[in-house]
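Title: Prediction job returns without error message
Component: structure pipeline
Severity: low
Priority: P3
Assignee: unassigned

Description:
Job completed but the reporter wants confirmation the result is attached to the right record. Sequence as submitted:
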Amino acid sequence: MEPLDSLKADSIHRIRPENLLDGVDIASNFPNSTNFFNEREDIRSVIIAIDGPAGSGKSTTAREVARRTNSLYIDTGAMYRAVALFFLENGLQIETGDIGGILADVLVRLEASDKGVNVFLNGTNVNEKIRSSAVSELSSVVSRNSDVRNKMVSLQREMARKCVEGGGSVVMEGRDIGTVVFPDANFKFFLVADPKIRAQRRAAQLREKGVEANESELYQEIIDRDGRDESRALSPLKKAELAVEIDTSQLSFEEQVDNIIRVINGNG
């Protein structure tokens, strides 16, 4: 995997609607980026890290970036949610007990699908279950445990390694991909958005599924979650060095995806 040592510190750039990619010299900052592409829009042996807080748009954006570049999509947040679901369903406490022993009974598997990825916990598809508020809240706690994090990071690196060694590419999203899991990722992005906008997005997602949603409560959950994620001692949420920061508050889904693709393809 090609390191990012050719990038300049001033390539860290905050993208807003009024200055999309303005001032980002793609050719200079990513001099070999166009070599990653073949005659289609596929990319070869590349790791793309997309980090950001909940509701910033990173999951849906990462799935579409992976689809358009024919890359493997790895949703690391879903992996932690699956572990949290295991604890919830089995009445286990993350603060006590033999976590290492408990994790021996936890098998998390991701499987590509037309909609992005299916998440399996011990052989059962848990796509819907892991999106509940209870699981979301606990996953923030679970992800702070070193045993859990070490196991998940190991799995994430192994999945990506196998893909890249086979000539494929990976789009991996989470909260510490560019800082911890793959600090030498070929491309690193950090998506952010106003907490109120993020609460509105989450409420809309829940309502689409027929679930009642209180935006005020969701807003507070987001603020609390951000605080936990940013202050945790182990792999805190923060922008990676040399990452391109994108404020998605006023961006459409297509704009989010298009501008990431433009950076990767060197056509900014």
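Comment from assignee: result matches the submitted record. The first helix runs from residue 26 to 29.
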